[in-house]
Amino acid sequence: MIGSKSALAGWALLLASAVATRADEPRWKMHTIAGRSEFEAAGAFDVDNDGKIDVVSGSSWYQAPDWKPFPVREVARVGTYYNDFATLPLDVNGDGNTDFLTCSYFGQDVGWVENPGKAGAAWTYHEIDRPGNIEAAWMVDLSGDGIPDFLPNTVNVVVWYEVLKKGDGKGFELKKHDFGKEAAGHGVGSGDVNGDGRTDLLTPKGWFEAPSDPAHDAWTWHPEWQAGSTGIQMLARDVDGDGLSDVIFGMGHDRGLFWMRQTKSASGERTWTKAPIDESIAQVHTLLWADLDGDGKATELVTGKRVYAHEVEPGDTDASVIAWYDFNPQSKSWSRHVIFQGEPAKNAPAKREDRLALKDFPPGTAGTGLQLTAIDFDGDGDLDLLCPGKSGLYLFENLTKGK
Questions:
Q1: Residue whose C-alpha is closest to residue 230's, from 183, 171, 266, 294
Q2: Is 34 left (phi over 0), alpha (psi -120 to 50) or beta?
Q3: Where does 283-350 show beta strands of DSSP type E?
Q4: Whether the predicted pLDDT of 249 surpasses 70
Q5: Which residues of 128-160 are buried (b: 16+ CB within 10 A; e: fewer)?
Q6: How far apart are the first and last CA of the chain?
Q7: DSSP H helical segments within 181-231, as ranges?
Q8: Where residue 401 falls among pLDDT bands split at 50, 70, 90?
Q9: Percent of the chain at pLDDT exceeding 70
């Protein structure tokens, strides 16, 4: 269970994050792909097979390197949201053109969108399943076969979809694994919690332990914490180097980025102690590990504010920020490194229905939306960042190799 208030307070004092600058840390150049885009998911892959990484987001794809837009499909709008909550590349039908997996909150569906292989031609949506309201998704190898699987943040039920090669070797099919409603909540994630080398599945209420054959055997449920409304992904990793995996998560509709430190009693009972990484950042919905500084280790934790996750909630009009964090095992402290720092929405209307990100925040405001991608766009050997959101679609070029 989560530790006592006194333990939490002690860790809060010890582990409060500080803004830091390292002499060797990455520098960034911001590029606007579509400053008026309001789609909160975007994928990065070679759409037209020309060897360059393009961007697909919502109703359009953008051709590298000049980001000329081409149509993809019509996407329904519901209030200030578009019913397109993930863009995860996969050549589903095996025709040599990269398609993408997607999901939606209002449509409650999982599906894939077929790449026609020709610029200007319409893409075709194919429904796979309707498990319920889905807020974002990610690709994680839960089956242990080396092929990333589809993990949606389905708030009413815990499900994942195993990505299997078809028998004829052409393309893939998705097989549903349903873990029921008891553990479901706002947020989902993955990581090796117990150090057995297998990838476990995390929810805001605890974790499912992966068996020796994750695709066929039963997973064991451990209701060991209550984390609240988290984002995707929650991440399990040994942060402090004590040999035990810890858990990192952001608050999706409040302020705060946190971690839970794992300890064990003499009898082997796990205890989780919550502590802050950054209590100032708001509406954290997506986070990932990446090797941003090129040292060969994916130890940089990357995240940011989802601009207007809800138009009215704690941190709603706060200045947007995109940042990465690292942990120092010696000082047992986190440091924050800013990639983008925006300005607040100073004159936002009081009523939720009157608010709009593109109107209320200054032009050029970047956030992390529901999807964040770290990939080497320009082929220079370092990881760049693709950041979609209600306030625009932006690319942050990592200048590490250009120093």
A1: 183
A2: beta
A3: 287-290, 300-304, 321-328, 333-341
A4: yes
A5: bbebbbbbbbbbbbbbbeeeebbbbbbbebbbb
A6: 46
A7: none
A8: confident
A9: 94
CA–CA separation, 140 and 101 (whole Å): 13
Name the token pair of 240.
């402090």
Which amino acid, residue 317? Answer: T
Residue 72 pLDDT > 60: yes
Would you state the structure tokens that stand for residue 221, as one six-digit string?
A: 């449920």
Q: Identify the residue with better confidence: 191 or 169.
A: 191
- Given a contact cutoff of 8 angstroms between Cβ atoms, the answer to whether 226 and 239 are in contact is no
Residues 6+ apart with CB under 8 A from 351: none
**70, exposed or middle or buried, with CB in 10 Å at 0-12, 13-18, 19+?**
middle
Show the tokens assigned to 39.
């789609």
Q: Would the pLDDT of 18 be above 90? A: no
User: What does the alpha-carbon distance between residue 258 and residue 251 come to, in Å, rounded to a whole number?
Assistant: 8
Find out whether 331 and 282 touch, Cβ atoms under 8 Å: no
Amino acid identity, position 376: D
- Which residue's entry shows tokens 């052409």? 170
Q: How far apart are CA 395 and CA 146, in angstroms?
A: 29
Round to whole Å and give the CA distance between 278 and 52.
Answer: 36
Among 159, 95, 170, CA closest to 128 = 159
pLDDT confidence tier of residue 21, bands split at 50, 70 and 90: low
The whole-angstrom separation of Cα 148 and Cα 162 is 8
